Amino acid sequence: MDATDIMLYVSYALVGLGAVVSILLPLIKSLDDPKSLLKTGLGVVAILVLFFICYSISTNEVLPKFESEPFNLTPQMSQVVGGCLITTYVLTLVAVVGIVITELNKAIK
User: Fold this and answer.
1) Where, by residue number, does the polypeptide cross the bilayer (predicted)?
2) What is the Cα–Cα distance from 20 to 7, expressed in whole angstroms?
3) Closest CA to 88 of 59, 58, 60, 67
4) C-alpha span between 12 and 6 (Å, rounded)
């Protein structure tokens, strides 16, 4: 094991620590104001509903070359991946449209 491997493991640990801290600290802070938890919960529910819709419209088609090693992709896994991709596309489009509307609104004012 050389220095590169050690640094990769350290970076993985730091990314994991950052993810845990970025989730836990706002939750601890929001315990002072329970209404903010409601807003967060509604956001999570909205994203889950969006994912369910995108999952429902994605196909479960698997090409023969992905059914064998090293992928071993099943139709269920293919549909989940398709749902994640479509959800990402929709959220990206919403973010871009939101940025454009915000900038146009600022330019008008």
Assistant:
1) 6-28, 40-58, 78-101
2) 20
3) 58
4) 10
